[in-house]
């Protein structure tokens, strides 16, 4: 009998050693959690996992958007050896517009390639810079 009791106590001590440590839930303090659930109860642990999944998907979407923007930048820098409109080979006769694209002789004018650069505004700014206003006081002194 003593052997049976000794074996039973050994099994109980082994079972107690193998049991995971449990603590009250960090958030709700109502239920118990284990180290596997970072000491959250199952309800709190699931809600935290859902929140982290939402954050991860948002981060992944931001990364995808950044990659798309980088791809768009690369697409904007097209091959300078071809006309942007007709894709004709330019060789040494290629003309670069102020919108930073290359065109053939036929499409070199802003009206021909729907230029995005505002030539009129640039000309106005240049006139203002080069032709300062004359004060009437200076004219009286002469």
TrEMBL record:
<dbReference type="Pfam" id="PF01428">
    <property type="entry name" value="zf-AN1"/>
</dbReference>
<keyword id="KW-0863">Zinc-finger</keyword>
<dbReference type="GO" id="GO:0008270">
    <property type="term" value="F:zinc ion binding"/>
</dbReference>
<keyword id="KW-0862">Zinc</keyword>
<feature type="domain" description="AN1-type">
    <location>
        <begin position="77"/>
        <end position="123"/>
    </location>
</feature>
<dbReference type="InterPro" id="IPR000058">
    <property type="entry name" value="Znf_AN1"/>
</dbReference>
<keyword id="KW-0479">Metal-binding</keyword>
<dbReference type="InterPro" id="IPR050652">
    <property type="entry name" value="AN1_A20_ZnFinger"/>
</dbReference>
<protein>
    <recommendedName>
        <fullName>AN1-type domain-containing protein</fullName>
    </recommendedName>
</protein>
<dbReference type="Pfam" id="PF01754">
    <property type="entry name" value="zf-A20"/>
</dbReference>
<dbReference type="GO" id="GO:0003677">
    <property type="term" value="F:DNA binding"/>
</dbReference>
<dbReference type="InterPro" id="IPR002653">
    <property type="entry name" value="Znf_A20"/>
</dbReference>
